[in-house]
Structure formats: structure tokens, C-alpha cells
Fold this sequence. Notes:
Elements: E1 49-50, E2 77-87, E3 94-105, E4 109-115, E5 120-127, E6 133-142, E7 146-155, E8 158-169, E9 176-182, E10 185-191, E11 212-220, E12 224-226, E13 231-237, E14 241-246, E15 260-262, E16 265-272, E17 282-288, H1 297-314, E18 323-328, E19 335-336, E20 341-345, H2 346-349, H3 357-373, H4 389-406, H5 412-427, H6 451-468, H7 470-484, E21 488-489, H8 491-502, H9 505-515, E22 521-529, E23 535-543, E24 560-566, E25 572-576, E26 580-584, E27 594-595, E28 605-607, H10 610-618, H11 625-640, H12 646-657, H13 662-666, H14 669-679, H15 685-703, H16 709-726, H17 729-743, H18 759-770, H19 772-781, H20 788-799, H21 807-814, H22 821-833, H23 838-847, H24 849-855, H25 874-887, H26 895-910, H27 912-920
Parallel strand pairs: 1-21, 2-11, 17-18, 18-20, 22-28
Antiparallel strand pairs: 2-3, 3-8, 4-7, 5-6, 5-8, 6-7, 9-10, 10-15, 11-14, 12-15, 13-14, 16-17, 19-20, 22-23, 23-26, 24-25, 24-27
Amino acid sequence: MRKIILRCLLAAPLFTLAACGPADKAADKPGGEAANAAPQEKAAVDKPIATEQPAADPAPQMIAATKAPAGRLPQDTRPKAYRVDLVLDPRRDNFTGKVEIDIQMDKPSDRIWIHGKNLTMNAISAVLPDGKEVPAKYKEVLDSGVAQVLFDQALPAGPFTLKMDYSAAFDRNLAGLFKVEEKGDAYVLAKSESIQARKYLPSFDEPGMKATFDISLTIPKGDAAISNGPELKREPVGEDMEKVTFATTRPLSTYLLSLSVGPFDVVERPAIPANKYRAEPIPLRGFARKGRGADMSYILDVTPRLVQIFEEQLQRPYPFKKLDIVAAPQWPSGATELAAAITYREQAILTGDKPAPGARLRLLDVHSHEMSHMWFGDLVTPPWWDDLWLKEGFATWGTPLALTTFEPEGGHDLNAAVGAISAMRLDSLASTRAIREPVTDNNNIRNAYDAITYSKSLGVIHMVDQYFGPDVFRPAVGRYIETFADGVADSPAFYKVIGEETNTPELTETFRSFVEQKGVPLLDVTVDCDEEGKAAVQVTQSRYKPLGSPIPDSDQKWSIPFCFSSDSGVQQCQILTDRVEKIQVSGGECPQWVMPNAKGSGYYRWTLPEPQWQSLVERFAVFEPTEQLSIVDSAFAGFEAGHVPAALLLAVVEKSAHADKRQVVQAPLRYLQKYRQNYVGKKQEAAFLNFARELYQPVLERTAGSSDSEDQLLHSQLLGFMALVAGDPDTRKQLADKAVAFTGFNGKRDESALDSDLYGAALTVAVQDIGDDFLQHLIKVRGEIDDPRFDSASADAIGANRSAAQLDKVHQLALSDDVGSREAFGLIRQSIDEPALRAQNWQWLQQNFPAVLAKIPDQWRRATPSFASSFCSKDKLAEVQQLFQKYGDQAPGYQRSLSQTEEQIQLCMALRDKGVALIGSMPE
């Protein structure tokens, strides 16, 4: 699943237009799988199931008599096949279902544990192989959806079939099987990941419990129906219903189930042709809500080429019998890798045939990520959520690798580098988590969907791939897929396969080192030159920690693939395993400069003595863009740790503004926004604005009117920064005028006045500068402009309102049916981030917190402490703590987000003196 991930929730957004955005080229191993995919009917048990339970979270070997498992279910009772028959009518508020589950039980017992939540069980029984039927009782025991089935008599070890007849209400908050209404039409969709399938299907709802599915849906006549298998037949049921039967699936986890019904536009495309890896063509279809099918043109245009790229790079066939691309009218995440029916929030993919540069980039990013999941996660699945990185990390790594093949000059490698570096902000906290650590409670599963799992994993995998070489690493990844196809594999199984395939123990040890401990390595690099001019680089590794961090001093160390370059012209590499190591510099002469992260592929930060830093800054332009990104990141990290002086940091920022690549120019902006928000007083506003103008006005002039998509995207990003962060009045007026024309505030709408990349910035400025009349107008046109990106951006803009007279209206809107649950989250977050009325909005949030929790998506409630991440004072820290002492039980899993928010506030306070001094040192 693509993170929208709440990945950006740890820090305030760069500015309204910035999205939370998301490489996998695997095997070049010869002699890949035969042209045909594995047979559809092959059962999960027939493939290797390689798992090693974490010591802190063992799988139970005996079925507990009374205590419900908070985490994994007992592993001695497993599903083999499901037969699911549901009646789904979007016109109604509830549904009915029948399910039969073929189960293998290793030991005799009179009860089993399964998953189910808010289900009304009408009938339940077990059918033994001899036909004997044993009645049973069903009871939901834990709020997380753990249920007990108690049989009237003990069942013998062996196979049996569990039969259930049940009903439930459609969810109305984007979880489980939920109902939404758009433009007068009702739709039903299933959001199953991570543990939402239990809300509509009594089942073994965890990733390692893979089984085949036979699904039938009885739906209103003429509606579209989507599931994981190809549609086989339709049969009339009564006057206005029909039964749709789908083909048997490959073994799947419940979190990959797809069920969607409604009056969708169905866009048929030519099948993706067969190739040497796959004997059969792949039927390709798009689904969008009524009237929006034509807007799927771009994603359907690029899909065949992306499928081809993944098959060629992995040398493995696309694993399913069809490929549906579904634009969900509403969806809680950016996208979900439902097997053979990838489902997206419609704003991500309904772009038409000429999307704006930023919208196009986000579409390619999320689509490639989800396509990668067809192999990483769907075909080969982690057995439990502690190994989530094996699907999300590899899908994130696969994205830029596929897109670089798709368009080599698209800058996707730099986007990946930016993503890996962004993870270091979260990984620098004491409260961060390791990529792999035990998950012992269902309520904590969603906490693993963060920048550590996605972007740190990307950085670590990329570092290993680059250091050991694609010709070594990628064939091993292909072997991993081949070995565990249709089954499950955990981290030890992955380590074992790549260790055997590469015969490189250092590779496996590097993975263990970075995957199983938290934190960012900091390399303190010095150059020692003797009297004869011979030089050595000494490297001391420790865990990076910023000023005020509670991270204790320790001897923590990693197995680090370390590469450096110097003016000798030779790149030198070595695996660092000791806390202090010395490397002789090639060529023997004392270098004038040393770059401690050659190619910028290392997942670490570094520091140098100030003279060495100065040498790098002077030569900034000659380094590769990925190296420039590493310099910018380590300079800001050094400043926040007290190692780098303000003057040196500002020199790095200035150099980055003159860089050739968009990603390097943008690299300092998030830090500058943070410093502007927390450390700039009224007297310093002019100095900050002049500093920003000096740096970025020439870039805006250079990129204005450019036909290059990277220039266009950079131009939009800098307009947003200058307007919303620097507060440049000319830029604000320019954007407000665009918003006025686009929304028709002064008359007829001009749809060409504003592209989607500027929706957020322009609408926010207009709300703040034009005043109450524009806010009222914007609320009105939200119901008239059918554009999901506009819908989201306008909600954020309304949240950024600075008029106290409009607060009641804004607050009422946030909790009303006129704003979707996701949009409500963004509106409220933006209202707390906006300094002008932050105090009033925070007070309202505290007074109405239960209503806010009820409004926002269920799986986002755990992240609500991040609403307070922009605070920087002791009193607000105490108020956040008090809020969750009172209401924390209504936001299960909130503890990690709260601890990270608390730490962020503390670090902000600790940096205040240096931050104020930095702003004060900016030239007038």
C-alpha cells in the first residue's frame, strides 16, 4: 500500500501544495520462471512457508482455553480455502453474507480463534469430512476484532469446514466494507488492509494465513462488480438483482481482498500482450465513478509499459489473470495493492490525458509502487506485520527503478534519494522504531506504516544494491520471489535466500544491522596526514542525535557500506564494522577535500572538521546531485546537533539554490519552513523574506514559462514557498488572482487559470488575503467543481482561514457531511498549523475531540497526536499529554504518535536559541 501514508504527519506539511509522496527492479537472473504463471488453483500450503517468530512475539503452539490473542492467532489452525457469497446492494445500509472456510486444525479442540468485528452471526457450524455437522457459537471478544468460535463438542485434529451465515452494516467511515455517495450515486467498496477485512468477513485476517477464494456477489442489475478473480458469469436474481461469480483466486491474504459494487464507468482497454515470461495476455480495465471514466486515460496508457518493465526486470510473469485499475470515489489511503484490482483514491489517478507535472509525477509514483506489490506482498507475503518492510520497502525501492527505465531522464533516482533522506528525520528521534520489531497487538499494526518501513527501507535496500552491485543483489531478489511464490517469507527467510544466492555474508549482515536496530548512523570523518604527506581517513561511528535528544550515549554500531571520494579522483569503499576505523587514502597524497558519501547512496549522516566542510561547500557545484542532497542533509543535521555553525549552513543553502536539479533546490525548504514558523519574530520577517527572495527569485524567473516538466514543478513549489512561508506579497497577489479567476469569484470561471499543482497554495492565499467573501464562495464552489484534487486542496485552504469571525463556520464544516473524512483531517490539521488562529483552533479541537475522532478515517485516529506537531512550548506539550490521557482510549494505537510528537516539541524548544541566532545572521 502506498503511503500517503500519514508519512507526512510527523512534521507539518512544507506548504499546502506539497503532497505526501511515495525502487524495485529485481532479478536479472537467467533461466527465470516458465512463460505461464503458477496455476490459479495452487494452494498456499503447497509453497514454502518460511517463518521465524520474533522472540518477543512467539506464535502460540496451543489454542488458549479462554484468553484471546491480542496479536497473532494460534498457528495450528489454518484456512485452506474460502467460498464467499455476499449480497451487496449500495442502495441499502447493510448486507448479508455466507462463507464456508476449509480449515486444517493440528490438534483436537472445542474452540478456535478467528477474526470478526461488528458482525451479526445468524448461524454457524462445523462440517466434518464424514458430513457430520457440529453446531457452534460465535463471540467477538476483543475490540480489535478477535472472535471465538466455541463448538458444541470437541473437533478432532484434521480438516473441517466452518460454515457461517451473517449480516452487518456498511461502514460509513472508509473502513472494511464501506458505502459512499458521490453525485447522487451510491457505491460499496472494501478496504481490507491492514485488519479491516474482519469487518465484513469472518476470517483468519492476518497476512500469513493465505488461502484461495471463490467469491460470488449478488448486486443490483447493471451495476459493475469488481473482485480479485476474473468475472465468470452473471445470473438473474429476482427482478432487479443479479449474481456475479468470479474465478478462483491464487492463494491470497485477506488484506488483499477486493470487493466493489456500483454504477462505475468501465473502461475497456486492449489486453496487455503475452511475452516470453507470460503465455497469456492480461485483460486491462479501468473503473471510475459514473461520468469520470475518460479521466483514466493517462494511467491506462502507461500501465502496459510498466507491466512489461516489471516482468523484464524481475524475469517473472505478472502473477494474476487480469488487471483492474479502480478509482475509488473515496479511499482512506493513497492506494492499496488489492490483488489484480489495484484501488486508488480517485484524486491520485483521475488526471485526464494531460496531467499537471506534479500530478503526473505522483500518479507514476503511486502506480509503480502498487504494481511492484503484485510481486512484493501479493505473490510473496510477509507472515506477520513485523516484516511489513519486505513488501512496502521493496515496493518503494522498485518504484524509481521501474520509472527510471520508463523515462531515464525523469529524475526518479533523485526522488528516491530525497525519500530515503526524509526518513532520517523520523529515524533521528529516540521514539522511532526499527524497520523490523515485534508487533504484539492488533492495535499497533498501523504504526508500522511509516517512513521507517517505506523510506528507510528504500534507503537501506538502495545502499546494499549500489555497494554490492545490481548483478549480485538483484538475481538474489528474483530467487527470493521464485522460492516463496504463493507463500509467505519473513526476514530470516529473506536473509537466508540472499545469503545463499550471493555467497556474500557482508550483504546479509548489513541488512540485519540496519533492519533490526533503530537510528541513523553518524560518521565523524577526519583526515590525518603525516609528515611525508601520506593520508588516512579516520571514521568514528555513533548514533546521530540532535540537541535536546534523550537518546543515550552508547556503543551502538552498524555494518556500514561506506564509500568516499576525494581529489585523488578515486572512490574508495569499505564495510565499516568497528566503532573507529582508519582507511588509507589512495594515491598517498593529503587530499584537499573528502566527500564522505560518494554517490550519495549511503544511509547515514556525516560530519567533518570545519575546514573540510568549507572545501566541500566551495566545490558544491561539481558534485553529483545525490551527493549534493547528502551535503544539504548533513549540513542541516549538523546544525541541529550543534556541530555546524550558522554561517556554514547558510552557505550550503545558498549553493543549493543555484543547483541544476529541482530536488536539490527544494532540499532546504522544509527546514526553512520550520525555522520560519518557530524562530522568526515580527522584527525578523523582513530579513527572512529578503533572504528567500535573494535565493529563489532568480530561480522563479528562470523557470517561468518553461516547457520542461521539472522546471514547471519547481516553479510551482517555489511559488508556494514564497507565498505561504516567506510571505512575499507580490507572489501572494499573483496566486490569489489565479484562485479568483479559477473559482469564478468575480464572474465566469476560467478553468485554465490554475493547474492542480497550485491548487493548495493559491486557494490558501485567497482565503487568507481576500477575506470572508472568498471563503464563503469557496465553500459554495466545492460542491460545484467535480475535481477530487480541488476538493482536498480547498478543504486545507479553508482550514488555513485567518478570520476569527469565520471560525464557527469552519468548525461546523469540518464535522459536517459536506466534507469527507479525509478532507476533514486535512482541514483540522491545517487549522492547527496556521499560527494566526492556532490558539482558538486548538481550544476547539480539545473541546470537540470525540467528535473529531468520530469524523476522521478509523485507521487515522492513532495519528491524531500529530495535530500538535507544530507546537514548540512546554504548556502546549502538557495540553497534548492531558488530551490523550482523557481520550486516548478512543484512538487505539496512539501511543507511538504521541511519543514522537512530544519529542518533536521538546527538540523544537531545545533548538530555539540556535534557530533564533540563525535567523538573526541572515543578511538584511
